[in-house]
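I hope you will forgive my troubling you with a question about protein structure. The full record is reproduced below for your convenience:

——
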Amino acid sequence: MSHYLISFPSSALDWVRDEQLWAEIERTSREVIREAKAAGVYVFGGGLDDTVAPVRIAADGAVSTDLYRETRLLDGGFCVLDLPTREAAEEWAAKLAAGCHCDQELRPFHDDPES
């Protein structure tokens, strides 16, 4: 089994304006998460809290708001699933795309026995 990150940026849902549609997206996306939990493949997930500013921590413990340029816009929702194959990961990503009403990005984690 391998871990896969399935995610989307907050901007993927900028088109949603209707409260009833938001409620539908919440319902259908949570159904997929419940299905993943029932299947025993759910590791963790959620949405990044955009009300708290991210910080960068240096090796000496210094805290800075100077983030890596590549990750300044890291936001949105994500989940990590433990799946047997890339094909299975693509199937779950498709389920999440349907449930969330937006495309999902799929990235595998490196397998590391120490993690």
